[in-house]
Amino acid sequence: MAYDEGLAERIRERLGTDPRIAEKRMFGGIAFLFQGNMAVGVTGDDLMVRVGPDATDAALARPGARIFDMTGRPMRGWVVIAGEAVAEDDALSAWVEDGQAFAASLPPK
Questions:
Q1: 54-68 pLDDT, tens digit each
Q2: Residues in domain TfoX N-terminal (predicted)?
């Protein structure tokens, strides 16, 4: 499955040149890892964000968000954001910051 390279590039712009960030192909798209922990990614035209179990309900209340479920087994702590919901830079920046903050709260891998 192809992924939205334009969305991936917009994420790269927000993450900058932080050496703790790595890119890895995952879930048929691309993931951005902070110290080895996935923070955000792109699958198809959508944004994946790791928000953590405690922030899942609040994240799902935001526009365009749905539970991450690729295999019929929903993954609590992960959400998928419809591409059109992150068309505005401020919305994308907020999600990227949330994903990076959660990944930064985890021990480095």
A1: 999 999 999 999 999
A2: 19-101
Q: Residue 1 is which amino acid?
A: M
Q: Where are the domains of the chain?
A: 5-104
| Closest residue by Cα to residue 49 from 58, 72, 13, 6 | 58
> Is the separation of the CB atoms in 42 and 1 below 8 Å?
no
Rounded to an integer, the average pLDDT of 1-23 is 94
Dihedrals φ, ψ of 24, to 5°? -150, 135
Rounded to whole angstroms, the Cα distance separating 97 from 92 reads 9
Tell me which fold the domain 5-104 belongs to: Aspartate Aminotransferase, domain 1 (3.90.1150)
